[in-house]
């Protein structure tokens, strides 16, 4: 009798897990529509990452959100740079983003998803209606990047 009851419980748990997995797969497999916000940029961290003011974040969390610009990779700077050329280009990309944002009349961000590390959000940053990603690529300070292997800035 106990073995039959145990089998029923195992079967019920297996069915529940299957339902959850199917539901999650269907939800996660969908293309998510970006959500657009007009937030004030309070800091440019590097060429492809900015911080927005987020006063609505509950205490005791910091009142800011870091957003990595979707679809690009800019060179690293400082200790993260793999060579002096990358460091120089990384600083130029940061300066370009900083000056572009400072001169802008309007900045919006279209949030897409959390990045793979969980500490930032991926989003499209629009400056006066222009894509910050496109501006960086045109300036030669970014490359298209969608999560595949990165190309070295030191070659």
In whole angstroms, the N-to-C terminal distance is: 70 Å
Q: Which architecture of the largest domain does the CATH hierarchy give at level 2?
A: Beta Barrel
Q: What do the pLDDT scores average to?
A: 83
CATH topology of the largest domain: OB fold (Dihydrolipoamide Acetyltransferase, E2P)
Which ranges are low-confidence, i.e. pLDDT below 50, for 5 or more consecutive residues? 14-30
Order of helices and strands: HEEEEEHEEEHE
Tell me the number of strands.
9
The CATH class of the largest domain is identified as: Mainly Beta
Strand fraction equals 25-35%
Rg estimate, integer Å: 21 Å
Q: Characterize the largest beta sheet: strand count, sense, and whether it forms a barrel.
A: 7 strands, mixed
Identify the overall geometry. Answer: globular
Structural class: alpha+beta
Note the total helix count: 3
How many domains in all? 2
Give the % helix: 25-40%
